[in-house]
Amino acid sequence: MLHITELWKGVALASMLMLGTASAQTVLKSSDTHPDGYPTVEGVKYFGELVKERTGGRYSVEVYHSAQLGEEKDTIEQVRSGVIELNRVSMAPFNGTVKETIVPALPYIFRSEDHMHKVMDGPIGDQIKAAFEPVGLVALAFYDAGARSFYNSKRPIKKVEDMKGLKFRVIQSDIFVDMTTALGANATPMPYGEVYSSIETTVIDGAENNFPSYDTAKHYEVAKYYSMDEHTILPEVFVMNKAAFDKLTPEDQAIFRQAAKDSVAKQRELWTAKTAESRATAEKVGAEINEVDKQDFIDAMKPVYDKHIPDEVLKKLVDDVRAVQ
What's residue 12's pLDDT? Predict the structure, then answer.
């Protein structure tokens, strides 16, 4: 009888261990400054769904949206140090640490969103991804962030001269500061979450961003003039802490990379729909949207290129981007 009792105990213990192994799950934290439902947030969620499905539930992703873990500058340091594993962030804040990211951040480097897709989906995109690894990150995917344009509370901008004297919030990037200065305006780098109140209290006159950000942050309430100079078509980057990625088996690494690639198509689809929806919302509430003479803006960018593309490696990368048809 003792034998049988011990046998059943052994069976029960083995069953518990098997159950524990089957239900074990590693939860990865991911940050995004944008609100729930925003295309980048939903893109990372979709990535998480694919990873969970393809690893049989061994990994899942918890997305902290709405800057719950901090603004982009803070979360970049968190993911590099391993406090969080994943992060969706603009490429501009990486300009100081990953020099290759300077090129896609240049004003008017891309002729259109289609041109940007062809560049970032090809060998040039792979080259830029590889440049993240020496700083402790694995670039998994590039997401759409549309075209960025200036908007303000003072007046429509139709030509470069209309920029003179206006104060604009820009991304915390020297390129964006120098671009704004070259156009005759004053640049104020600040976190995205401070823009609304800063325009409202006249600390700044406006900012620059895409239609979905202009809409979801309700910047149209304090800056009704949106001028479509479309100075940058800057992709966003979805990164993972390299140490965490290196701990994955080769099979799981392949799953993560493929899931990220598959999430790009989903994110782009959501982005296109959200851009149209956000522009319609802005127009409905009274925002004044106008076209501009882009050639004037393009011509003003020569000093920005001269300053930020100082070496032959980056100059070649610029030429390679421009050569993509």
Answer: 39
- Report which of residues 209 and 73 the model is more confident about: 209
Is residue 194 located within the same domain as residue 130? no
Query: What is the tens place of the pLDDT at every residue in 277-314?
Result: 999 999 999 999 999 999 999 999 999 999 999 899 99
Per-residue tokens: 33 = 């400054």
Same domain, 213 and 178: yes
DSSP 208-269: EE-HHHHHHTTGGGT--EEEEEEEE---EEEEEEHHHHHTS-HHHHHHHHHHHHHHHHHHHH
d(CA 271, CA 276): 9
pLDDT given for residue 172 in this prediction: 85
Q: Is 8 exposed, middle or buried (0-12, 13-18, 19+ CB in 10 A)?
A: exposed
Check residue 9 and give its pLDDT.
41
Q: How many residues does the chain have?
A: 325
User: What is the per-residue pLDDT for 2?
Assistant: 39
Half-sphere exposure of 265 (CA within 13 A, CB side): 4
Amino acid identity for residue 260 in this structure: A
Total domains present in the chain: 2
Do 95 and 175 have their domain in common?
A: no
Q: What is the pLDDT of residue 14?
A: 39
Domain that holds residue 111: 25-144+234-278
> In this structure, are 123 and 167 located in the same domain?
no
d(CA 88, CA 324): 26
CB 143 within 8 A of CB 62: no
pLDDT for residue 5 is more than 70: no
Domain-embedded: residue 269: yes
Residue 35: other Cβ atoms inside 10 A = 12
Going by C-alpha positions, the residue among 120, 232, 110 that lies closest to residue 178 is 232
Q: Are 321 and 132 in contact (CB under 8 A)?
A: no
Model confidence at 15: pLDDT above 50:
no
Residues 182 and 225 in one domain: yes
Do 53 and 126 share a domain, yes or no? yes
pLDDT of residue 203: 98
